[in-house]
Protein: Holliday junction branch migration complex subunit RuvA
Amino acid sequence: MISHLAGTLEHVDRQSVVLDVGSIGYQIKVPASVLNRLPALGEKVKLFTIQVVREDDISLYGFLNKEERSLFSLFLSVSGVGPKTAMTILSGFPLDRLVGAVAQGDITLLSSISGVGKKTAERIVVELKEKIARTYALKPSEMAEGIAGSRTTISDSISALIALGYSPRDARDAIMKLKIEDERPVEEIIKEALRVLV
Structure:
């Protein structure tokens, strides 16, 4: 198994990159969260990889750190979650927010990700909650409250926008554009999100 690849970034498209390692080009699928943090073409980069073998496909998936790779593997262990869905989930929110959402059973936040329905979100929580706690060494208080205090506020804000008629994806994208880092009233967040959605 290829654990990581370090080389020159040769090509980037919407779902994958080509990494030149010793004059061999490796095509590696990456989530949007990785695409947004890659260096310029021609620069050196190291990706932590996992190889997924299926009947009709053998693909490499790459991440900028071991924690993202571990979370991808955990999502793959969930019944009904394949590589495509796992990549979509990792593209939806930053790693710490996803870890916190699973740890505190935040079905609303998880199901707001495009392609992740309520049943899939529930399976993720049921099957991964304890594994997430062990893998990321979460304390009981973090399991109950999440890693960041703003998570419940974000989830409530997404729910409110959905109730106003916006799609889960539009609601999530609008909230993410606000880059909320601290506790703020839900009403204030919704007002700002509505301006983004106009």
